């Protein structure tokens, strides 16, 4: 069922009773009973410490948790004069629908700034509140993206595709375009609401990249906030990130199609203003299964190599075939080949008419292969040294943007999926 609002009637009534707030903090959640108390406490402390004279509302937008998430959120003792609203949103199940409810609440309350934070954070501190809110409340910015110190194998979708595309295609060096912790103006919240996306995959897991790209193309002032080390419920990419990959990359490619007039003539990239100090602390390690990543790549290549031969250039296919014969310790997918894979697939997606989700699914084994290659390249590095490798990769994406445009403008291939 398609809803005209993600808010329930009694929540709309409550928001109208409040009438006006200065700050809205949205917390989208689903089965986060282990972390929601800490997130709410840190948000409450931060609002009280830094914005005691402003009127805040903390809005928990829940996806129908079957654990005690909502009960715990209701039981947290907030600092004085802080409002709390908790609801199960209406609409497509997913983070995007949770955000839709938050956008609507920001509009009704006519807030000056709306901040959203993930509900699985274990490293959030009161200072995060100040760092995320101050650029909108005290400066001219309308969109604040996070910058974290992350373990070298956390954020693999960001590190290997999303950051690179945002930088090379849209010309903005936004390091964490799908970081999950943002602040935006009420004007931007209304812009998001006006987009006809709430029955699409963006209402599931594509919301973060949707927000970032629309902020860029709307020409609002964008900045970043250093938040320090990010510790959250990180996942082994080989085990957990396949479905998220399909939805995020599908949204990324769809937005490239929609906003082609904006980005096709952009050359190079520019840094965006960044506030706050960087934490020089090695983050908590997460486990990755290198063997499984390589096995997933090889299984995918065996299953789809006939399609890959049709889809990709001879150079890319030959390199993939070479990688499929490598053992785990020496496995390598050269960065130039990875960049061409991403760009050639984006171009195919652009001309494709049906089975676009299937097309992105074909990319998942190749993504696993690139992560395995990155692990082998950085195995002896700390996270800060590995970050330099990520930056070098981003520069290669920039260098090959003319290659993207060449493929993008070529006639589409006719491949039977």
Structure description:
The protein has 417 residues and is α/β, with parallel strands linked by helices. It has 2 domains: 9-275, Spore Coat Polysaccharide Biosynthesis Protein SpsA, Chain A, CATH 3.90.550.10; 290-408, no CATH class. 52% of the residues lie in helices and 12% in strands. It is built from 18 helices and 10 strands. It has helices at 9-18, 36-50, 69-75, 95-109, 126-138, 156-170, 186-194, 207-217, 237-240, 242-258, 260-263, 290-311, 314-323, 335-351, 356-361, 364-378, 383-399, 401-408, and strands spanning 23-29, 56-62, 83-88, 113-116, 143-149, 172-173, 182-184, 222-229, 270-271, 274-275. It has an 8-stranded mixed beta sheet, with helices on both faces. Strand 2, helix 3 (69-75) and strand 3 form a beta-alpha-beta unit. It starts with 8 loop residues before the first helix and ends in a 9-residue tail after the last helix. The mean pLDDT is 93.
Summary keywords:
417 residues; alpha/beta; eight-stranded mixed beta sheet; 10 strands
**How much β-strand is present in the residues?**
5-15%
What would you give as the CATH superfamily of the largest domain? Answer: Spore Coat Polysaccharide Biosynthesis Protein SpsA, Chain A
Number of strands: 10
* Mean pLDDT figure: 93
How far is the first residue's CA from the last residue's CA? 30 Å
What is the structural class? alpha/beta
Question: Could you list the spans in which at least 5 consecutive residues all have pLDDT below 50?
Answer: none
Order of SSEs? HEHEHEHEHEHEEHHEHHHEEHHHHHHH
Strand order of the largest sheet: 3-2-1-4-7-5-8-10
- Enumerate how many helices there are, as a single number: 18
Proper CATH architecture of the largest domain: Alpha-Beta Complex
CATH class of the largest domain equals Alpha Beta
Please describe the biggest sheet, giving its number of strands, its sense, and whether it closes into a barrel.
Answer: 8 strands, mixed
> Which word captures the global form?
globular
Query: Nearest-angstrom radius of gyration?
Result: 21 Å
